[in-house]
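pasting for ref
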Amino acid sequence: MKKSLLIIFLFSVCKGLISQEQLEENKSTKYISWALLQLLPSPTLFQDSDNKNWRLQFGFQWHITPINISFNPNKYVSPVQFFFIYPARRFSGSAEIFVQPELATASFSYADLSVFGISSGPRVIIPIADRGENLSISLGGKYTYRKNFNGDKNYYYGIEAGIYIFGGIAGLQYTQNFNSNTKFNISIYLKYF
């Protein structure tokens, strides 16, 4: 009887060790695949204008969320998440700080701006249908840094509105910039969680 209990005890301990190793392996796989998916950009149209001419400039944006505070978290978990944000917590109502690197595919010939820029700001996500899973919207403010061709720094503010479907994986964002050289951006929002 004692030998049987000892064998059962050892088997359960060994099983627990194997499960723990598999758990660690699954965690690293989860974070590596998430990091690789974040490298996929969202297509964006930037307005390029001067006093006489304007055109739409194609480019890309990447969506990084360093911090998110959920309004409806499970009572057993913290409302704050960093970088790896679960979609259900984000689109069921939350506030976040975002960073968006932007890259145009050609120069802003009218606006005299660099092809690379970076935007940052706060955003609030509001669920509309099915706790945000099927439809949610966002409102936010944006501060964009983009150099001129001659190397001068160019900063401008903007306001952003977005609408999202499919659990927040896809959406459409519009930004109204307070800059006469690039008055708006339209982006197809793609975020892989």
